[in-house]
Batch of 2 targets.
Target 1
Amino acid sequence: MQIIFLPGLLCDGSVWAAQVEALRTVADVALADFSTQNSITAMAETALALREGPLVVVGHSMGARVALEMVRLAPGRVERLALLDTGAHPRREGEEASRQVMLDLADTQGMAALADRWLPPMVHEARVGDAALMEPLRAMVLRSTPEQHRRQIRALLDRPDARPLLPTITCPTLVMVGRQDRWSPLAQHEEIAAAIPGAKLVVIEDSGHMSPVEQPGAVTDALVEWLGLAPALRAAAHGRRTAMDTDGQDDGIPDRIPDIPLFDRKRSLRGYRLNKMAMGLAKPENRDAFRADEGAYLDRFGLSPEEKSAVMSRDWREMVRLGGNLFFILKISAVDPVRITEIGAHQAGMDHDAFLRERLGKK
Amino acid sequence: MAKLIGGLGTSHVPSIAAAIDKGLRDTPDWKPFFDGYVPGQEWVREHKPDVAVVIFNDHGNSFFLDKVPTFAVGCAEEYKPVDEGWGPRAIPPFRGAVDFSWHLVDTMVESRFDPMICQEIEVDHGIQVPMELFWGRPAAWPVKVVPIFVNVIQYPIPLPSRCYELGRVLRKAIESYDSDERFVVLGTGGLSHQLQGARAGFVNPTADRAFLRDIATDPDTLAAMSREKYVELFGSEGAELMMWLVMRGAMDRDVEVRHTHYFVPASMTGAGMIVLENKAAGDGRQAA
């Protein structure tokens, strides 16, 4: 799964830090940068060029307007769409004048003055004095420049009316908004969700306009659930310290495809003795020897204490981490019977019934 | 000259063999799986092939990691079923088609495929299961077999496009073989499954069903996909689906789909079957 995150006005990838951190283990995640374009269309083109093929597009505020533009430009590529704290309407009366006040402020008094004026209404009233929330946001605004601000305001003022597009959207769409978003209120999101066929609306409690940073856990959870990634994340949390990790005892090179221990040179070399021992069990006399004195049988193949311990405790996850390949180490189950699904559940870090249900779709 | 009368694709999950051995064919877990193969069995009964070229991978039972041929061709008079550690299975040995095997090896090398040549080798569930699924459990197999072993375990495994090309060479070998024997080609393995790592138990029915469709109508796209894409879509062990491309490469670009079957999960695997005939094969059907 390829997920593109799109930040809003004066924002950058830092607003998505929590979501990216959570999802990167199970998806190919990219952050769009809108610091140089002066139109919503150019921003959408930039984001579409980040990856080839189908995309999950997650946009916040101005980024969500860009997300809608991506759907207009390439409807076949956006397979899922999440719109956070945003709007679909074109420029409103008086908007240019009020935006001009902010442009002038940045020009005459600098970005710090702009941050002090612009940020407080963006967050939940109760959080305005919360330094842990506000300082990173202020630092983010200071990373921007009056020129970037001017380009983005130009893009926003010239934005297309996305309302006619909404009923044509066919991909699964999630609309999310902070309950206390004063900039783009809940009612506006109810309208957007109602206009998009099948769209799901999620309200983030105790949050203003900056929901990805104000309530990072709730926003992440909503995305994870909507994307169906909860089981994969659970598995990855188990796996991080096991099969995919090289654990510092190795060359430190991660697997080419996360979560998937391809049987490459590294694993083949590492697991050679372990796999050879297990293949020995194809012979009846070796099965007898294994049964009679397991430790002595393992010693015949020069297994390290770590490898011996993994085998003797039937720790399948650990055997795979040590380079064992199921095609070979499965022979252990010819001596000490265990179902392949139990071995699978063990590696996935799941209860056997849950494994059958969630992974294999058994009723 | 010999004639290619059809292309068959099937999973070769070892639990299928265990289910047959334990008499579980008609239990609720397995009946829908086995019932779906009945049309495939009827197809081989009706078309009576003389030789089955079976593309599969050994699972450490005949080649361990000490010697890993990328492609190997069996050139033996007989192939004994190997005891994989759970005791010998009550299935007859497979008769080889030695003369054709050597002709295939010649054709491959002349076409720049350089296989390992195996005159004595036992064969595991990779070929046993597909043969049982299509021919049942006869006292003696009614077809001769030509095993083609493909390494899909130890990386670097071959490219999917290379498997597809090998199929074209196989077709050339069949059609240049001086005989009136009727050939079928079996591509085996898959469908989606992953036995190892945190994603163990991964199955992808959507991708599996798309594969069963595309292997007939759009094999070029499947052949152009990367190994990583196979792993991503079908799981680390599901990448063995690329062996179906050898079968598909042996067939015409335009094929008729006679039967397909899909069932999930067979043990930990999305399992399936396909029966293909070349579009121009109507005369072959009548001859049968």
Note: The first strand of chain B starts at residue 3 and ends at 10.
Target 2
Amino acid sequence: MASHHDCWQCGTPDAGSLFCRYCNSLQAPTPDYYVFLGLPRRLAVDPAILQKQFYAMSRMLHPDRYTRRSEQEKRYSLEASSILNDAYRVLRDPIARAEYVLREAGFEIGEQRSKDVPPELLEEVFELNMALDELRAGDSEVLPQLQESRHNFKLMLARIDSVLEEHFQRHDGQQDVASRRAVLEQIRNVLHRRRYISNLVSEVDKQLSSRNA
Amino acid sequence: MAYSDKVLDHYNHPRNVGSLDKKDPSVGTGLVGAPECGDVMKLQIKVNPETGVIEDARFKTFGCGSAIASSSLATEMLKGRTVDEALQIKNTEIVNELSLPPVKIHCSVLAEDAIKAAITDYKAKTLDAAPASAQSA
């Protein structure tokens, strides 16, 4: 999915995504992270390839290289560098990457009802909140329980991450849009559960560290 | 965003906080959660097995002021109603009573879910407890 446009400088049609293939002037950058980086639209991204591409493009697009160029190109190099940094930050993190692909596909993130949460998890969350309450009230007897909960929730996060990994592979293997969407839907649900649990873990971390401080 | 006076009242003076014996066959327990805001709500009812009237209701909610107020109000609404009447309670009644803004409507939905979950749990218990002859009859 390359962007097809005429070069703003020389008018060459279908100029190319970064530089005009005829006059080599920098083109207006596309805001799509995958297209911008020239990567296939896959959820499983090889971090080494991503990093290599990021460094190569950083050098190519750095505003210092455009100080003697036209105002238009100076502006494009600033814009492109900023998109490049955002793209790298988002795509190198599997969670942020999945959320990006979901949003681009038109999924809303954040809408969820309790029926998506397994009852055992709710039970554990409730107990955890009770223990946090007691800790805030000054009862340190709950500390071992909290540490155990934190450990359990971290294990849960690790399991969720490996499930996500599998979903990513499955998503990338689908050929048609409808099957991809079906996998994206599952990924969204897993992401919701993950966020729920990671919020809890950070709450426990906060409480435990404020006591140690 | 400011909370309405009624929300503040329930938040500062929550009614019926606490828990009932989960193992008591006349007690139904509903535990629900809203992961997007991290809320978790436990609501319990104690039912008179003869009359089907809810004699006591308790809750414990971890969440925002509206979630606490919604469950506090729910326990007040439940007391004195029969189980079947309680099933008719709609989240919109809670929204209206507490003047909840649109972004907090999910809190009232959670409270309705908790009521239904508690009743479902109670009914499942009474079904289990019923003698085999009554079930096959």
Note: The interface with chain A takes residues 31-36, 38, 40, 42, 60, 62, 109-110, 113 of chain B (CB under 8 Å).
